Amino acid sequence: MQQEQILEQLNSLDTKIWAAIIAALVSVLVAYLNYRNQKRALRLQQQQIDILQNDKKIEKLRNRLDGFYYPFDLLLSKSTELYKIFRNGLPREFRTLVYLIDKNTKFEDSDGEFKQVELSDEKMNILNHIIDSLSGLEDLINSKSSLVDDKRLTMAYEPNSKITDIKLPVDSERPTSMPNDIGLFTLFIVHVHYLKSAFKGEVAVSDLELVKNYVYPRELNGIIKENIASLKAKINEISV
């Protein structure tokens, strides 16, 4: 009789143990499912955050393209095409600013000979349109250059002797508070200023040696194209 009671107690105990084990397993399973769902929710949340961050990056890059680079490149291309027509038939080393200041200047042609130039009324009319286009570029720089982060354009331009003959003047007597570095945009704006003044005959021949360093910066076109390609590549990279 006592043995039967002991067996019943053991059976009852086994049932309780199994119930406890099952309850514990269910709790572990529920905890695991909750953990997995929470982890998945966090992963989805992070994906949404990454998407939003990438969208902001893309929007910022596109704003640089649409707000500055595309309109600047379009207007610069127009000026370039007009200049191709303007300089047709002129010596290889012809520089417009130099000519406007001193019309007696001789320019080297492709044969190594130096020739004096006389611009026709038609060419002077084309040049007037070019100056208008350059003024439009200056307006874009003044209003939208905050969208540009290329230091070559904004603050630290180093002339490439393979592309340009510009030699930036250095004033050894300048005050230390006056910066020596110059951005390509600033150089371009000074060029437009002198080009307009020279077109009106307001620059003296005696100033030619200094002013001729502010001829058109030929590297500008290539750098603008380079930056457009770089921004588009970054957008494609982020979009993948």
What does the model show?
The chain is mainly alpha-helical. Helices cover 67% and strands 2% of the residues. It has 7 helices and 2 strands, in the order H-H-E-E-H-H-H-H-H. It has helices at 2-86, 96-101, 121-144, 151-154, 184-199, 208-211, 219-239, and strands at 106-108, 114-116. A two-stranded antiparallel ribbon has the order 1-2. Helix 1 packs antiparallel against helix 3 (121-144), helix 1 (2-86) runs antiparallel to helix 7 and helix 3 packs antiparallel against helix 5 (184-199). It starts with a helix and ends with a helix.
Helix/strand layout:
Layout: H1 2-86, H2 96-101, E1 106-108, E2 114-116, H3 121-144, H4 151-154, H5 184-199, H6 208-211, H7 219-239
Antiparallel strand pairs: 1-2
Keywords: Coiled coil, Membrane, Transmembrane, Transmembrane helix
Coiled coil: 35-64
Transmembrane segments: 17-35
In short:
The chain is mainly alpha-helical. It contains 7 helices and 2 strands, in the order H-H-E-E-H-H-H-H-H. Strands 1-2 form a two-stranded antiparallel sheet.
